[in-house]
Amino acid sequence: MAVGAGERGSAALEFALVLPLVLTMTLAVLQVGLLVKDQLVLEESARAGARQGAVSTDDGSVRDTAMRAAVSLDPERLVVSVTREPGQGSGVTVAVVYHDRAAIPIVSWLFPSTVDLSAAVTMRQETG
Questions:
Q1: For residue 16, pLDDT beyond 60
Q2: Beta pairing partners, 100
Q3: 110 vs 63: CA distance, rounded Å
Q4: Beta-carbon neighbour count of residue 8 at 10 Å?
Q5: Alpha-carbon distance 124 to 32, whole Å?
Q6: Average pLDDT of the residues in 80-87
Q7: I need a labelling partner for 73 at 20 to 30 A (CA). Which of 31, 48, 83, 98 fits?
Q8: Which has the higher per-residue pLDDT, 8 or 92?
């Protein structure tokens, strides 16, 4: 038996042992990236809602605008709240909470069953 054949066999065995760990870590990094993407969408949703709240006194339209801005998120797991201070020039705060879940089933055991993402934006009201 040649010396090179045994080394190739041990390299293949090492690769077979390490491959599941490398794939699991790669998928976990991908899942974190998906959570970060959802957080960015949530922040844009809060910003859009706050902008609507700055130009409108209708809290229903503010909630609708924030929900429409969260295009890739499940509306059933999205909670939008609007808080206003009285008077023109005061602040309107739109807070958005999203109860996210792991999207990649193979690594879902590495993450909590629900990850709560949140964003809040405050803008000055242009109308009173």
A1: yes
A2: 115
A3: 33
A4: 10
A5: 34
A6: 92
A7: 83
A8: 92
